[in-house]
Design a protein that fits this description.
The complex is a heterodimer of chains A (115) and B (115). Chain A is mainly beta and 115 residues long. Chain A has no helices and 11 strands. In chain A, strands 2, 4, 5, 6, 9, 10 and 11 form a 7-stranded mixed sheet that branches. In chain A, strands 1-3-8-7 form a 4-stranded antiparallel sheet, with no helix packed on it. In chain A, a hairpin with a 6-residue loop joins strand 4 and strand 5. In chain B, the strands form 3 sheets. In chain B, strands 2, 5, 6, 10, 11 and 12 form a 6-stranded mixed sheet that branches. In chain B, strands 3-9-8-7 form a 4-stranded antiparallel sheet, with no helix packed on it. Chain B is built from no helices and 12 strands. Helix content of chain B is 0%, strand content 54%. In chain B, a hairpin with a 5-residue loop joins strand 7 and strand 8. The chains are: A mainly beta (115), B mainly beta (115). At the A-B interface, strand 4, strand 5, strand 9 and strand 10 of A face strand 5, strand 6, strand 10 and strand 11 of B.
């Protein structure tokens, strides 16, 4: 399968713990995005990379959140000191630079449950 | 700022009957508009896109949408529903004057198809 893959698919953690999600984009895609989706809502933009550069961050991304894409390939999203309000589906997407804005390829998501 | 409003959170149709999922948008600039579909436990998939070319846009699986600037609408239609169309549908706007591929999703419409 050559689509966007995310790991883990499900994570249950206790409040205050740190969690990390990984995203492997489609191999030739140089843009990578993170979105968050809560129950009954559409996905909300979190952050965006072009190659290894993080070009934009949403105000939703508090200082407990950090994302990296160290070699311009896979990306990680870390949440420190998790809170119950962090419970959501975290979606990763990728696209080709030059492809029209909005043509994103999404992974199946990583579902976080904070107890 | 851009936004989309999906007028129905849930739509139920019988198999073989037409589908209409409604979407209105607001954008400061000439928008790009999209419909994405999310099947249970699957990643979001692009159905179709409008990017200022033809106002009637055809997508995958027999879906189409018409961009109506005067009504600020981008409704999704299909002549005949199939059981496999049951899913969550998101209307999405991308501000082409924006600096990145930041999509704004609607809250979604859940399509139920009954026998």
């Amino acid at each position: 399968d050559t689509g966007v893959s995310q790991d883990p698919r499900h994570k249950i953690t206790k409040r205050g713990q740190n969690v990390t999600f990984r995203c492997d984009p489609i191999s030739e895609h140089n843009r990578l995005y993170w979105y968050r989706q809560t129950l009954g809502q559409g996905p909300e933009f979190l952050t965006y990379f072009q190659n290894e550069a993080q070009l934009e961050k949403s105000r939703l991304l508090s200082d407990r959140f950090s994302a990296e894409r160290p070699k311009g390939s896979f990306s990680t999203l870390e949440i420190q000191r998790t809170e119950q309000g962090d419970s959501a589906m975290y979606l990763c997407a990728s696209s080709l630079m030059g492809a029209h804005t909005g043509e994103l390829f999404f992974g199946e998501g990583s579902r976080l449950t904070v107890l | 700022a851009q936004s989309v409003t999906q007028l129905d959170s849930h739509v139920s149709v019988s198999e073989g009957t037409p589908v209409l999922l409604r979407c209105n948008y607001s954008s400061s600039y000439s928008p790009s508009l999209f419909w994405y579909v999310q099947h249970p436990n699957k990643g979001l998939q692009l159905l179709l896109k409008y990017t200022s070319a033809a106002t009637l846009v055809k997508g995958i699986n027999g879906f189409e949408a018409e961009f109506k600037k005067s009504e600020t609408s981008f409704h999704l239609t299909k002549p005949s529903a199939h059981m496999s169309d049951a899913a969550e549908y998101f209307c999405v706007v991308s501000d082409r004057a924006g600096t990145a591929s930041k999509l704004t999703f609607g809250t979604g419409t859940r399509l139920q198809v009954t026998l």
